[in-house]
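User: I'm writing a tutorial on reading structure tokens. Could you give me a worked example: one chain, its sequence, then its tokens, then a sentence or two explaining what the tokens reveal?
Assistant: Sure. Here is the example chain.
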Amino acid sequence: EHLRVWAIQLLLDEGRPRSAAVLPALVALAGREESGLVLTYLASALQKVPTEERWALAGKLCEKESLAADAVYPLMVWYGVEPAVIAQPERAVGLVQTSKLPLIRNFVARRLAAEVDQQGPAVAALGATALKSPANSVDILDGVIAGLKGRRKAPAPPGWTQLSQQASRAVSADTQAKFREISIVFGDGRAVDELRALAVDPKADLDARRRAIAALSEARAEN
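And here are its predicted structure tokens:
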């Protein structure tokens, strides 16, 4: 284990891999490695790889579901990925779709949503991914909500209206609620009406009503 850590450090020189063969070797090691210590060093090494070349290694590191709850590992992966998210949003969405680390799904979604004015297509792709992957939808949609926090209005991503309509037929009430919270920022009148109806419904879940009121208040909806 410690020899593999030493080898990783040796293969990196002044913040960059020593040769073109180093990165494939690190990717291969990440794919077969089980040691949390070695994988954490690999995640740290990710920051020393040229930004546009980080995705293959990041993808392997994000497959390590056994380390999803680790206090350090997911953050180290994120620190390596973050600079590349806005530069290559399509690759970032692809990582969300395959990652087994909830923090990565959440943080990538948050980062893209914070730049929704320029990253509308990527945010729409995140919405579509959330609908196709119910088990991961909470991480993704909570990330989008966090990225939009403080925004009264934002331009709707292309195709968002259709996604919102699909979400209204989602099995999970929580997924429907999160899509409504997002859609109100994008100026979706139907979402506003649904949130208003929910807020005044005495038979609705109390927490859902509170979230509806909070969403309406933050967006400063009329009335």
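What the tokens reveal: The mean pLDDT is 87. Residues 79 and 167 are 32 Å apart (CA to CA).
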